[in-house]
Amino acid sequence: MRDTLKNLNQVVGINGSMLVTRDGMVVASELGRDLEEDAVAALATAIIRTTLRTLRKISGEGFSLFTLTASFGRLVLLDAELAYLVVVTERTINIDGTILEMQSAVRQIQKKARITL
Question: Alpha-carbon distance 15 to 40, whole Å?
Fold first, then answer.
């Protein structure tokens, strides 16, 4: 999993990435020096839990992609089935093109997860 995260982090504008379960366990992490793993995981977990709980009340379904724009940059969450890919980007990044790279990483993670199960 780490090699997939490392490759994703080579994309211009991505500052770090990690794989987090719904209950907040970090499966793999490749964050930049300026990012604290515990803080990013805590924020991602809070967003995942709150958003899933609310969406299930509204529609009965979860989400596949969530983007939060903040002063530090963007936090992008993508559902990878067994966990969520969490990506921290620069605020000014062209998110549309970068999401394609993130979705490719999700497919790689899903494939590796199926092999190891």
Answer: 12
Nearest alpha-carbon partner for 81 in 54, 41, 117: 117
Render pLDDT for 43-99 as a digit per residue (tens, 0 to 9): 999 999 999 999 989 987 889 999 999 998 999 999 998 899 999 999 999 888 899
Q: For residue 45, what is the enclosing H or E element?
A: helix 37-58
Between β-strands 73-79 and 26-31, what pairing exists: parallel, antiparallel or unpaired? unpaired
Q: Which domains does the chain have, with CATH numbers?
A: 2-116 (3.30.450.30)
Q: Which of 90, 93, 105 is nearest to 35 (CA)?
A: 90
Q: In this structure, what token pair is assigned to residue 1?
A: 């999993």
The first and second tokens of residue 73, run together, are 């940059």
Helix, strand, coil percent content, the chain, rounded in steps of 5 = 45, 25, 30
Output the six-digit token pair for 95.
């998110």
The whole-chain average pLDDT of the chain stands at 91
- Distance CA(30)–CA(2), nearest Å, equals 7
